[in-house]
Amino acid sequence: MKNAFSIGLCLLTTSVFAQQINPTLNDTVKTLLPVIITGKIQSPERMPEVKENVLFSGKKNEILKLSNINGNFATNNAREVFSRVPGVNIWENEGSGIQINVGVRGLSPNRSWELNTRQNGYDISSDVFGYPEAYYNPPLEAVESIELIRGGASLQFGPQFGGMLNYVLKRETKKKFTFETQNSVGSYGLMSSYNAIGGTLKNFSYYIYNHSRSADGWRQNGEYTVRNTHAFLEYRFTPNTKISAEYTNMDYQMKQSGGLTDAQFEANPQQSLRNRNWFGTPWNVFSVQLDTKINDNLTSNTKLFGLKGERNSVGFTATPNVADAINPTTDNYANRRVDRDFYENFGVENRNVYKYKLGKTSHNLAFGARAYQATTTRKQSGNGTTGSDFDLSVNPDYTRNIKFKTENIAFFAENQFRVTEKFSATPGVRFEHITSSGAGLFAVNNGANVNFDAAPIVRNKALFGLGLEYKFASTNVYANISQAYRPILFSDLTPPAVTDVIDPNLKDASGYNADLGYRGNINNYINFDISLFYLQYNNRIGGVRQFTNNDPSQGTFLYRTNLGTTVNKGIESFFNFNITRFLKIDNKVGNVDFFASMSFIDSRYTDFETFTTTGTAPNAVITSSNLDGKRVENAPRYIHNLGLSWGKNNVSTTLQYRLTGKIFTDANNTTTPSANGVTGMLDKYNVFDFSSEYKFLENYNIKAGINNVFDEAYATRRSTGYPGPGILPGEGRTFYISIGAKL
């Protein structure tokens, strides 16, 4: 770790020395060289009232320009990237960054499944309604910006409670040809290489990149390899009409270290008791988009998009207090479990904005429609090999093989009425028609097939919302209330064991988000956004462990039902203060920024049902009682990020501190950890990260940083299944150094 500190100090010393020996040259360099200053007042930015056929007036939103942020982009360090967005909770399974797990406002971060996750405006998750987990996200070195719209996005982008998360990829539109490369090495065998070409030739634009990364992993049995390839081509028929096509392919293999009991974690969080567990998700997404300006008042965008992907896992899935050992009778390890999903999705989405006048005031109407179909083939509980490699073969066949299908048609409209030049009101509506179906083999019980054949579930759901915004000179007050909705997921209908019980009256979840906030810039040195939020989640679905006849000795089963209503409320605040600009010494000293992203979250069940069981599953008689006031699982009471950044000319550095409160990991609010590590409270944690960048010779850069500077031992989650039951440690101290160029 001393080497990493030395690297950062050398970079800073070199820059300061160069400025001191030739202050005149320094002024020239400041004028001519491209400048990246972290922490400058534009980060995060906010959306204008209308952008790309979407209305943002009255909605809480953030745009993160990654060129304005110092961070470890080589491994997609979400903790650094989202540090300026209040209320973002992050699950850190391992340090590969292959999957980014984020949640907002006390919602689960599990593969960002409470958010509508997109890339360049189109869906990239498994199935928006049936299985909304995002197994893919682009490498952050390829990302220009990240857009996050909170719950008010439910009307224009889909009914998700969390809102919409969109990764906008880099493009090159000014030069005929550019080449960009960024190559990184780091702790535990990290090697990463990002290479891209792009440009514009008359009416054509193109951008192609390949990103490859591998490492041994901070934990034992944590090695991985990942590759991302992307191609984009655009043709402009006229200045007002263009068509583009893009294709992304990702493939990776990742060894999963598995979970730990609390005792194992305390003894050595780097240890792993599993060396035969693997995970991989080959992923393909494509999109064709047509943008046109029909006339001065009407613009339109149409996207045709699709996905073909897989989710593949093989491993020994017992809890960490069960050893994965060779059986002396067979002289072999136990057979591993193989689970595979296959996804085939396609859809079309149209968005339009119509500008019109009523009297002397102009108004905006955003409207559109969406058609979507997704097919998931789920093969689970396969009897895998006794080996240790990434072998997905099974013998005999899978004991679960179900095909699910989701069909969706949606219509949406929002109208921004400018009541005055300063005040606008934006009412909106979205109508969802969703059909879900599934059929196939559910299990094999005592040699007999147990089939699954669910009658199609048809929903017709209307959602409504209203946004308000009042503008001052450089600030504005905003308010929004929008309904949200979450259908029953495939995993809710198919429990992991044949003895488990599903409530026959299982209902879809519904609710709403509300915001009231004040945001803007003051005198070009203060950037702020402070707001109150209220999120009500009705009929929240979950599982409660039950004892047969209330007697633990007779066995247990999981009862999956609507647990009740949760209310998440709190404060989200962001504040960036440019100290040197305020003191009017930024021309001499550079930009010194202090930022604070703080959130206080109170997430509780207000209608929490507990159950008493009589009889034996699956024909048990279950009666309920109410126990409200329990805290929502995986929802910390506070998430704070504090940072200090300095940038001048071609040097920039950022030191940030993240503090996250303790969490319960189950709905029963179990405090004492279980012997197998699956339940129990997780303590608060504090993590420091340092990142820096030095630009030289106009087109070249060196980046370096240390993550978890003080080697804090912490964990953000527990798991009951993949990536391995038990407590999942966050990474200890690691460093990286990177050299890149854009020519």
Automatic annotation (TrEMBL):
<keyword id="KW-0798">TonB box</keyword>
<keyword id="KW-0998">Cell outer membrane</keyword>
<dbReference type="InterPro" id="IPR039426">
    <property type="entry name" value="TonB-dep_rcpt-like"/>
</dbReference>
<protein>
    <submittedName>
        <fullName>TonB-dependent receptor</fullName>
    </submittedName>
</protein>
<keyword id="KW-0732">Signal</keyword>
<keyword id="KW-0813">Transport</keyword>
<comment type="similarity">
    <text>Belongs to the TonB-dependent receptor family.</text>
</comment>
<feature type="domain" description="TonB-dependent receptor plug">
    <location>
        <begin position="74"/>
        <end position="160"/>
    </location>
</feature>
<keyword id="KW-0675">Receptor</keyword>
<dbReference type="InterPro" id="IPR037066">
    <property type="entry name" value="Plug_dom_sf"/>
</dbReference>
<keyword id="KW-1134">Transmembrane beta strand</keyword>
<dbReference type="InterPro" id="IPR012910">
    <property type="entry name" value="Plug_dom"/>
</dbReference>
<dbReference type="InterPro" id="IPR000531">
    <property type="entry name" value="Beta-barrel_TonB"/>
</dbReference>
<dbReference type="Pfam" id="PF00593">
    <property type="entry name" value="TonB_dep_Rec_b-barrel"/>
</dbReference>
<dbReference type="InterPro" id="IPR036942">
    <property type="entry name" value="Beta-barrel_TonB_sf"/>
</dbReference>
<keyword id="KW-0472">Membrane</keyword>
<dbReference type="Pfam" id="PF07715">
    <property type="entry name" value="Plug"/>
</dbReference>
<feature type="domain" description="TonB-dependent receptor-like beta-barrel">
    <location>
        <begin position="239"/>
        <end position="709"/>
    </location>
</feature>
<keyword id="KW-0812">Transmembrane</keyword>
<feature type="signal peptide">
    <location>
        <begin position="1"/>
        <end position="18"/>
    </location>
</feature>
